[in-house]
Design a protein that fits this description.
Rossmann fold, 2 domains, two-stranded antiparallel sheet, 8 helices
């Protein structure tokens, strides 16, 4: 978790006992300044509503949550009462078995690549799309992006959530979006130069490919307008960050998301680059022991789990490995 210094940034979040602030929270019905106690109360209220909703709407969860009474969820400690949803559960209910809304209310479907089996399918209502756009705009704000920026979005568009997720967030922010998608690198380099792109959204490996293509075309990206890169969808290291920043002359920031849980903007780095800001009003993170399936204390390594509480169509999606419903 990033611990940006109070007074140095208008956007910061601190440790468990501190204050949580994000400039665009007011657009999503959350106060700009919210104490840890109030944040946890909001989380518990939304989690309780989510559990009640899926017990009512989804047959799989009605069976899985037999004996679970939503009103008994009174604190984050009660998360341990909830069972896990696994990747196999997603496969067994492919494609639409975990949707909590009828198909006429689903306005968009995304899916994972399905490289290890059936793809993970996610449905979105109109409300979900608006919520996702709001969270993506918040992530862009954390990166220092404003409505004055020109964003070259080189994430893939289509079933993959990356391209459209950030596209809608950029539009909600009021920035100019160039939907280049991935590939066609020579043209991408030309657009980067001729259109004066100030923000690049892409995988980190593609950012280096783009820089190399620009050099071959006689253009040094460092001489242009580009100033920020928002990179995700694949693992990358601090050494790779340094290489990207050196070759492109930008600030390179990490974004986190996954198709099973909305898409990009579950968490985002700010310009201090000391950790990820999780959108805690929508997601509750856990680190879980792969051996005991118990929640681990801060500082321990384990499997990542997320509790998603505010998506209408599929509010209890899961990451690979394990996560509570």
């Amino acid at each position: 978790m990033c611990r940006c210094m109070t007074g140095q940034s208008k956007i910061y979040c601190t440790n468990r006992s501190g204050l949580w602030r994000l400039s665009a929270l007011t657009n999503l019905g959350v106060s700009r300044d919210i104490s840890r106690e109030r944040m946890e109360r909001l989380q518990v209220d939304r989690l309780r509503d989510c559990v009640a909703n899926v017990k009512k709407q989804v047959g799989f969860y009605r069976n899985l949550l037999t004996g679970t009474v939503p009103k008994d969820i009174r604190s984050l400690g009660d998360l341990t009462q909830l069972p896990f949803t696994t990747k196999q559960d997603l496969r067994d209910n492919y494609p639409f078995g975990l949707f909590a809304k009828p198909m006429p209310e689903i306005v968009r479907i995304h899916a994972s690549s399905g490289t290890t089996g059936k793809p993970t399918v996610v449905g979105y209502t109109a409300n979900d799309i608006d919520m996702w756009a709001g969270l993506a705009s918040r992530a862009l704000i954390l990166a220092g992006v404003t409505k004055k920026d020109i964003i070259q979005n080189a994430y893939g568009y289509g079933l993959f959530t990356g391209g459209l997720g950030l596209h809608y967030g950029a539009e909600k922010l009021g920035a100019t979006v160039i939907p280049t998608s991935s590939g066609n690198t020579v043209r991408q380099a030309m657009i980067l130069k001729d259109f004066g792109s100030t923000v690049l959204c892409a995988t980190p490996s593609y950012a280096l490919v783009l820089a190399e293509s620009a050099v071959k075309a006689g253009y040094d990206v460092r001489d242009g307008s580009l100033r920020v890169g928002i990179f995700g969808a694949e693992p990358w290291s601090e050494n790779m960050r340094k290489e990207i920043e050196s070759r492109l002359g930008i600030t390179a920031l990490d974004i986190y998301g996954l198709s099973e849980v909305m898409g990009p903007a579950v968490a985002m780095e700010c310009t201090f680059k000391t950790g990820m800001h999780i959108a805690e009003d929508h997601f509750i993170p856990e680190i879980i022991s792969s051996e005991t399936l118990k929640t681990l204390p801060l500082g321990q390594q384990g499997e990542t789990g997320f509790h998603m509480r505010h998506q209408r169509s599929a509010p209890t999606n899961t990451v690979p490995h394990s996560r509570r419903s």
